[in-house]
Design brief:
This protein is of the alpha/beta class. It has seven helices and seven strands, in the order ββββααβααββααα. The strands form two sheets. Strands 5-4-3-6-7 form a five-stranded mixed sheet, with helices on both faces. Strands 1-2 form a two-stranded antiparallel sheet. α1 runs antiparallel to α2 and α2 packs across α5. The chain starts with 14 loop residues before the first strand and ends in a 15-residue tail after the last helix.
Length: 210
């Protein structure tokens, strides 16, 4: 008999930890915090109650648990069935000026404010609230494994950023960006030693201070 998925993968939309949530809930997540190259990207997604069983059946979960091919497929399903979604980012310059945490929160704020529908509540992945966001918000540790809306946001943000970095690989050859997506693999770190930093490397990150 096929094993059932563990409970941590049973993502929810209208209820979180037994507490009923408003109908218009935005899940918010970011990707690329640990990368050495490129922007940090965030997405905000509002799902209708009707969309929840469709996305659950499709297998929407934390983007880190999915293959690139699966993420692409699910991203298209999310775009079709989401009530509203937006992707935004904070630039490398903003990361170096503000620090990566504040830049990540800024990207999240931008994604929420771009939504065409105003959410009644924002579920923020992690344990840091978005500063200056004039909307109710709740942090959710490991939210991309506990909330369907946050998981959907993680997928959209990951697909958007991966596609961007893959395009930038042609403009900044030598760093193997299409393969490492800007993260600090041994080959990427060696390339930094060989070619130096590009204008889109995060100079505030220690491996880029060369």
């Amino acid at each position: 008999m096929e094993q059932q998925q563990p409970p941590t993968h049973q993502l929810t939309l209208p209820v979180l930890d037994g507490i009923a949530l408003p109908a218009l809930v935005a899940g918010v997540d970011e990707v690329g915090r640990g990368a050495l190259f490129g922007p940090v990207v965030a997405a905000a997604v509002i799902l209708s109650v009707e969309a929840a069983p469709i996305l659950t059946k499709a297998g929407v979960t934390d983007s880190k648990l999915l293959s690139p091919e699966r993420r692409l497929l699910l991203a298209e399903i999310i775009r079709v069935h989401a009530l509203a979604y937006q992707v935004s980012y904070a630039s490398v310059w903003e990361i170096d000026r503000l620090n990566i945490l504040q830049a990540s929160l800024l990207a999240m704020k931008r994604a929420v404010l771009k939504l065409k529908v105003t959410p009644a509540l924002c579920l923020i992945d992690g344990n840091k609230r978005i500063p200056g966001l004039a909307l109710p918000q709740q942090t959710v540790v490991q939210g991309d494994r506990r909330s369907l809306a946050i998981a959907a946001a993680s997928i959209l943000a990951k697909v958007w950023r991966d596609e961007l970095i893959t395009r930038l690989d042609a403009k900044y050859p030598g760093y193997n960006l299409a393969a490492n997506k800007g993260y600090g693999t041994p080959a990427h770190r060696l390339a930094l030693q060989t070619y130096g930093v590009s204008r889109l490397h995060r100079r505030s990150f220690s491996p880029c201070r060369i």
